[in-house]
Amino acid sequence: MNMKTALLGAATALALAPMAYADGHEGERGRDGQVNIIYWQAVSTMNAYLSGGTKDLEAASLVLEPLARFNQDGELVPWLAESIPTRDNGGVAADEMSITWTLKEGLVWSDGSPVTSEDVKFSWQYCTAEGGGCSQPERYNDVVDVETPDARTAIVRFGVPKPSPYGPFVSHLSPIIQKAQFEECLGDKAPTCAEQNFNPVGTGPFKVVDFRVNDVVTFEANDLYREEGKPAFSNVTFKGGGEATAAARAVFETGEFDYAWNMQLAPDVQESMLAGGKGEFVSGFGNLVERIMINLTNPSADLPEGERATAGHPHPFLNDINVRKALSMAIDRELLVAIGYGSAGGLTCNVVNAPTIYKSSANDSCMVQDIAGANAILDEAGWARGSDGIREKDGVRLSLLYQTSTNAVRQDFQTLIKQFWGEIGVETELRNIDAGVFFGSDAGSPDTFQKFYADVEMYANTFSGTDPEAYMGQWACDQAPRPETQWQGNNMPRFCSAEYDAMVAELAGTKDAEGRATLVKAMNDMLMQNYIMLPLVDRGRVSAKSVTLGGTVMNTWDSELWNIADWYRSE
User: For residue 55, how many other CB atoms are within 10 A of its CB?
Assistant: First the structure.
């Protein structure tokens, strides 16, 4: 049995776990005691609006919840909302200019106060406040108002017709936060509210007991959680830090942890882990793409702080599309997949691979390494080799800093890619940063992936749900991280194109599925054919669980911990 078959088999079996829960695991809340989770990227904040890091977003999802989210099949399901508004039930206006959400009856925060539509409205105001540093602003694109005619009703109004209105307040990326707790934390005050950001009041199955930055978060069951008998666990220890191999051993060998996230391990390591019988992999395949981001701005430390990596200072050589194209052509993606992921990864030349309707075939030439072609492009563009073999032009040397998070697979990738680039006359300095810091939210840190004080950087991300509208909006001009946004935002390359921004707006107003798919492909192709990012691997999402942990259902379309209220201890 190969790795992909084993992983898919485990995922299929685990999909039946919720029924087992219903049949044989009812009982009092907290009956199964402690559950231990390890994310080898440590949690920096419990505020989903102040971090783009998966580890922060998923930890926060234990406490903060949206109106609706996506299940393991990518289907939209109500969460804090009573039902999903649609055109058929009148929840989405005929002119597509509004969507009306109704909260479930009797919802309360973990402090006992009622959840109201004012909290929903405030969550939008918080993320869009002037001077703020919200990391998910694209979730609220085109929202002009949120009306609250009564305590349970929130009417989201858009400035343009919105055929796909399920961005605001949907998925773990845009949860509801409590107005009473955060109302003094708007705009530039947001990152200063440590108590609120580390200990948010929520509606989820757990609440924070103790938060230690970049180390461990301790949770206890929310006694006011709306579902009787849930969660089955009374406490959660959410440990961070280290690296993927050690996290895997903590499940497969020592049994210290019940669940380990993101098993970014070489195929042979995964196979050896399974042999002990203490754990198993859980997996799913969606749109997780490992990629290299290209910095189109100058990250030089010679520039004053506040001007580094900003739009006013273009990159000295990565603004040349010939250089970017050559960097892409030199990469052997087939080798990267083989050594890094095996059958749990696939070749890709796109940033959008799923659902299939959105996958472009226009960029597939990247799947074949072409060192000779890359050298020819650089020769023709006037980048000549110096005496040491490194290319230069007009006094500018092709010497770049390549950063990523600390992880064995990523460091293997760096080593290989440095070698590939050396073959085309590019000098590469490698840097790896602790993942808790790299994916953290500290606006004062020089080492975050948002600040991007390097020439290229490597990581993976995806989008929630099955509609990539908000995801494609991440590369609009106004989404670039910069001092005015507290260095939040998802447009890491600082790409800015009026044509692309026009397609973002057009996609927001396009109704039919075929038209939307055509636009998404065109946006993907613009990013790919301008080499704004270099996709490397279409990754399956793989985590590990103890054989005694039941109820887990891998979800590639929302938080991986989306159904933690259903987890239980099996015999």
Answer: 24
Coil, strand or helix: which one is 460? strand
Partners of 101 in the beta sheet? 154
Q: Tell me the three state secondary structure of residue 32.
A: coil
Express each pLDDT in 215-267 by its tens digit.
999 999 999 999 999 999 999 999 998 888 999 999 999 999 999 999 888 88
pLDDT score recorded for residue 157: 98
* Residue 6 predicted with pLDDT over 60: no
pLDDT band at 25 (very low <50, low <70, confident <90, very high): low
- The span from the CA of 183 to the CA of 166, in Å, is 25
Q: Give the side-chain half-sphere CA count within 13 A for 505.
A: 10
Q: Which residues contact 372 (CB under 8 A, 6 or more apart)?
A: none
How far does Cα 188 stand from its chain's mean position? 24
Q: Indicate the pTM of the whole model.
A: 0.78
pLDDT digits (tens, 9 = 90+) for 72-121: 988 999 999 999 999 999 999 999 999 999 999 999 999 999 999 999 99
Let me know: does 222 contact 62? Beta carbons within 8 Å: no
Rg, the chain, Cα only: 23
Q: Report the alpha-carbon angle 294-287-324, nearest 5.
A: 20
Q: Assign residue 50 a region: left if phi > 0, alpha if psi is -120 to 50, beta otherwise? A: alpha
Burial of residue 186 (CB within 10 Å: 0-12, 13-18, 19+) is middle
d(CA 563, CA 571) in angstroms, rounded, equals 20
Nearest CA to 6 among 270, 241, 204? 270
What is the pLDDT confidence band of residue 374, given thresholds at 50, 70 and 90? Answer: very high
Rounded distance between C-alpha atoms, residue 15 and residue 555, angstroms: 10
**Cβ atoms of 17 and 552 closer than 8 Å:** yes
**478 Cβ neighbours under 8 A, 6+ residues apart:** none
Extract long-range pairs of 8-14: CB within 8 Å, 24+ residues apart: 8/283, 10/280, 10/281, 10/282, 10/283, 11/282, 11/283, 11/284, 11/554, 14/282, 14/552, 14/553, 14/554
Tokens encoding 30: 């907290």
Is the model's pLDDT at 441 over the cut of 80? no
> What residues contact residue 145 under an 8 Å CB cut-off, 6+ apart?
156, 157
- Pick the closest to residue 137 from 148, 149, 129 (CA basis): 129
Residue 286 contacts residue 556 (beta carbons within 8 Å): yes
What pLDDT sits at residue 8?
37
Q: Which of 20, 560, 552 is nearest to 233 (CA)?
A: 552
**Cα 379 from Cα 334, distance rounded (Å):** 26
Q: Give the angle 31-251-53 at the CA atoms, nearest 5°.
A: 90
What does the pLDDT look like over 316-345, one tens digit per residue? 999 999 999 999 999 999 999 999 988 788
What is the rounded CA–CA span in Å between residue 98 and residue 101?
10
Contact call for residues 557 and 544 (beta carbons, < 8 A):
no
